[in-house]
Known about the structure:
By secondary structure, the chain is α+β, with helices and mostly antiparallel strands. Helices cover 39% and strands 19% of the residues. Strands 1, 2, 3, 11, 12 and 13 form a six-stranded mixed beta sheet that branches.
Amino acid sequence: MTPAVARADAGAPTEPALLLKYAAPDLSDRSAREVLDPIPAIVEKELRIRWLPLPMELPGKTPSAGEFPVPDDAALRRIAGMVSLAAGRMERVEGADASLLLEEAEKECRSYRFTEATRPFLAEIFLRRGILRLWEGKTSDAEALFSRARALRPAFTPDPALFPPQVLSTWEAIGRRPVPEAELLIESLPSGAEIFVDGERRGVTPARVRTRNMTPVTIRVSHPGYRDAETTGQWLPGDTESLRFSLPGDRVARLGELLAGASGGRGVGAGPMVEELSAAAGTRRVAILMLEKGAADVGLRARLYAGRPAGLDPALLGETSFPGGKEGAEISGKWVADSLAADGWPRAERPERPWYKSPWFWGVFLAIGVASAFGAGGGGGGSGGSSGGAVAVNF
């Protein structure tokens, strides 16, 4: 359900009004838009109103790709310096200090967009962290870190002259593993929301979603009756994270659900919601247009409601069927205008035609012209007028 777009009118004063348009979920977006989009302008021509935009809460700011800056030379030098210091600590078998430096270097890398310039550093970080885990006897952890390093630098192979046999054998073992992916656990309240990753549907919440894309990825969740929520992030191979979304309720979508499920033409329970929207928009005139497929999927069917004061349920003004496309928009737009006018909405005042375009003017003008012609013929021709009042006309 979407609000009509406001349009400024020139001419007679207009009354503010709110038009809410709702299309049934099984109706394609294109079919709905072909009919619904032109209706506000059609109705504005027939009624003395102007449509107001629906007041909406501003969505929370979400991270965007622009918030992951590309690392500059200074940032790359800082990262390289930390990795180099960690390597020096490892040569002196100072594992704890080396681990802290590697964690700091990874954190610095993650604050920037992952690029070809940062990938070698990240691969080095994971490789050295894996070696530290081998020192601690944590082979499985070491293999997981080596796999992440291998995913970032597929062509890299440890040099036997530089690395001990334990590292070489572990690296060979992870070569038989599949390349790791980032795994995201996506949850929402309420659950059952559709998950979209960069616009591609990937299931419903709760669900685990994997991605190999190391560039910023946009995760969006959508649930009927609630406003969408999204976030943008970037993940490395082997990353795991839980994303939890709390979806704010969408008053307009909820209103559409209530009316779509209404029986007997009654919008039971919708009155307070309509009153809330009316007060927020600053108008007492609210129209709700519901669009759905016609019987046997032939054509379209519409229901029109009008808001009522004091929190009463909106009144059903009528139902009608019509074809789709441009023809359907014209038919339904005129029907909406006539139905609202019958409910007391003000009709647009038709501009008066100039006096010289009036048929009455031309009728009188023609009559005078004909009479003048007859009079001229009687006075200037013939042998004279009779005393009895007869008029002689010469042709």
